[in-house]
Amino acid sequence: MRTTTVAVALLAAAALTACSSNPTPPAYTVVNQGERELDLGTAGWADILMPDATVNQAQDAIRTYGQTIRGDATMYTIAVVHDTTATTHGKPATTYVCMGRWVKDEQASRTWADSSITSDTWPAIGMNCPDRKG
User: Fold this and answer.
1) Gyration radius of the chain over CA positions
2) How far is residue 134's CA from residue 102's CA, in Å, rounded to a whole number?
3) Residue 96 and residue 101: Cα distance in Å, rounded?
4) What confidence score (pLDDT) does residue 117 get?
5) CA torsion, points 11, 13, 18, 23, in degrees to nearest 10?
6) Tens-place pLDDT, residues 28-44
């Protein structure tokens, strides 16, 4: 009896682990994005539309988008918004669910974020989510 219970528990744990190891990327629409050369280097921005996003979903979307960044940019501001009234071409969203600052490496963290974004691996993302309820 005890062996059966342990085996069932182990099978259940394995099933949960298998599900969590391949999470479905969040569905979103990029509504505003670009890059520009500034005095400190190339910076980019992206506004991601997710009308009913929770904080956790917004953070997942920011991380997913961050994995797609290529090129010369050393910093990106990535905002998840509920609607497009918050977006303006070339400027970050004015209201957002979460905003992430993606930096390419430690030097970019020093340049763009006063070294406030730290990581053992690069690139890295610092998150700001004003409404942590979701």
Assistant:
1) 19
2) 22
3) 13
4) 96
5) 150
6) 999 989 999 999 999 99
Question: Backbone phi, then psi, for 107, in 5-degree steps?
Answer: -60, -45
Report the SS3 class of residue 94: coil
Q: What per-residue confidence (pLDDT) applies to 36?
A: 95
What pLDDT is recorded for position 130? 87
Q: Identify any residues that bridge with 45 across adjacent strands, giving them in sequence order.
A: 34, 77
Residues 125 and 59: beta-carbon distance below 8 Å:
no
pLDDT of residue 92: 64
* Distance of alpha carbon 65 from alpha carbon 31, whole angstroms: 13
Which residue positions in the chain have pLDDT lower than 70? 1-23, 25, 86, 89-93, 132-134
Give the whole-angstrom CA distance, residue 73 versus residue 70.
7
Distance from CA of residue 18 to its chain's centroid?
Answer: 23
88-97 exposure pattern, b = at least 16 Cβ within 10 A, e = fewer: eeeebbeebb
Q: How far apart are CA 48 and CA 78, in angstroms?
A: 7
Helical (H) or strand (E) element with 33: strand 29-38
